[in-house]
Specification:
- The structure is a single chain.
- The protein is an alpha/beta fold.
- The protein is built from 6 helices and 7 strands.
- It has one domain: 3-Layer(aba) Sandwich (Rossmann fold).
- α1 packs parallel to α6 and α5 crosses α6.
- The mean pLDDT is about 95.
Length: about 190
């Protein structure tokens, strides 16, 4: 079976969408894949309660003196599950180059903008401030340069008159829940071939 490990920091809505997709018969039978674990860097991440049978674990970044020590502990927790994919789903930590290299070609992220525009934080407000007429989300491979990996899929939503960062974020999030499981399934299918 191909294992997926999902990393979260908060509410875990994208993680929940992936877990639900992975529980469908087509994933289990056609892709021979499932979510093995959900790991958070925060004990108070409400998404841990949405893991629906996957193992959960907390590796609290505040317990480690350096980013490298945290990433080493996180890597150890992930590797127990021998993942085919490591999926960042609202994981709010910048990862070290060594960590990224360890999971090269197996580490993906979703970002709430149409990359390469608006890397980093506050993407929705930045899109509104720039006068964008569309916004969206991008699934991409993780590299050591923040939000600059190969784009695997994008979803576009219109920016509406009167939009706030919150209303735009909510509309983008609905698309994230669609494209992220699709990309994961496609990558797992390609790995099967």
């Amino acid at each position: 079976m191909k294992n997926i490990v999902i990393l979260i920091s908060g509410s875990g809505s994208n993680m929940a969408a992936i877990v639900q997709a992975a529980q469908r018969e087509q994933w289990r039978e056609r892709l021979n894949a499932g979510v093995a674990a959900v790991i958070s860097n925060r004990a108070d991440a409400t998404g841990l309660a949405l893991a629906q049978g996957a193992a959960t674990q907390v590796v609290d970044h505040r317990s480690y003196a350096t980013r490298e020590l945290f990433d080493a502990a996180l890597q150890q927790a992930i590797d127990v599950h021998a993942p085919s994919l490591v999926v960042l789903a609202g994981f709010m930590r910048i990862l070290t180059p060594g960590f990224v290299q360890h999971y090269a070609a197996r580490l993906i992220n979703i970002h709430p903008s149409l990359l390469p525009a608006f890397t980093g934080l506050n993407t929705h407000q930045r899109a509104l401030d720039a006068g964008c007429t569309v916004a969206g989300a991008s699934v991409h491979r993780v590299t050591s340069e923040l939000d600059h990996g190969e784009i695997l899929a994008q979803a576009v939503v219109p920016v509406l008159a009167g939009d706030t960062a919150e209303s735009l974020a909510a509309r983008v999030l609905t698309q994230e829940h669609i494209i992220y499981p699709q990309v994961i399934a496609r990558l797992l299918q390609a790995a099967k071939a």
